[in-house]
């Protein structure tokens, strides 16, 4: 393995370790350099800044989640509501699986979840996830207008985000939490769907959300 690749991997391993232990915003570049046994200037050579380090750590997990969501939406085994429930559970499970980095991966310097453009690569990954969510919502409400779809998707996103934040600091295993909470995710999504279905005038989804 070339020396530059070894150094880059050491930096990534060190950053991941420190971010998990102290949180992304609390860790400095110099701390990462000490952990990686390199100079802090080396980090800028490979990653430009700490945000690029975060992007590098987040890319593979986020792409994996996107692929899982895409697979669920493309499946012919599930109906529209089941697909929305499945991608919701995938997002919740992802949040708990990366509970110590979840906020850095999904919320640090994040744009609005329904924005169309962003200048940061990590936000592009986040927007892709939200787009999968809107596709799932479109399947449930195929004749709904764009604004209604986006607003409902945001409701689902905020619901899942709140659940993740509620459970992320527990030391309990992810599988154990998921076993208890997945039924709640299902009921919550179905409840929101029912509310929209019963609201013929759409007044339950304010346009200013």
Automatic annotation (TrEMBL):
Alphabetic keyword roster: DNA-binding, Repressor
PANTHER family per the UniProt record, alphabetical: ACREF/ENVCD OPERON REPRESSOR-RELATED (PTHR43479), ACREF_ENVCD OPERON REPRESSOR-RELATED (PTHR43479:SF11)
Keyword Repressor carried by entry: yes
Protein's UniProt name: TetR family transcriptional regulator
HTH tetR-type domain span: 5-65
DNA-binding region (UniProt annotation): 28-47
GO MF assignments: DNA binding
